[in-house]
User: What shape does this take?
Amino acid sequence: MIFRRAIALAAVLMLAACSGNDAPPVDPVVAAKAAAEARAAKEGALYDQMRQSGSWDIAVSLGNEILAKYAGTQTAARVQQTIAETREKSAAIADSHRLARLWSYTATAEDGGTQYAAAIATKQALKLPNARLRLVLRQHPKWGQSVYLLLDNATFDCKGGCATLPVSFDGAKAQRMRATIPPTGEPALFIDDDKGFIAKMGKSKIVAIGANVKGLGETTFEFEVGGFDAAKLPAKPRK
Assistant: This one.
């Protein structure tokens, strides 16, 4: 509606300018305002279209441009009413994509079937040379489902005991979850209740796990797990 009115006004002004010497002169300020309203209305229509289609990132870009280039227009006033929501939705989608990219997934052929695994690194870097700590969810055709912490270029210090680990979901009070060191000597700590852990993790954005690492001592490590895609681990959990 605003777009059509602006175009009509611009057309009237153009006709008036060409109607002959008897017509009153066109006010350049009014003409410029009508032209700006027409351009703003055109971009505003595209802004609305992007919002309706869920293309929030494009809508934010268009909305910001309208507010910057066409301040004072009717379209800018209308965009101002929805730009906060548009920015919020765009930011939420961007963060969702960021969280999803934190996870890596693998599917590897093994005797008896396929091993599926999902891994995510800690939110904070370890203050040890080339060290990395990951949370791994694995489905193995022979060993079943497992959840464990895996260290690269560092080792867990279990002299004081690693039988349980403090685990917190979304800032709730930490609970002690039983853990096991593999007898084969890998730098890993297995969380025994894999089903319970995954069920709670699937409803959480952040999981914090305490572990004792040589050279760091007892440390709480955070994992931004909110982007986990359970469909990437298609095998049925079993032990």
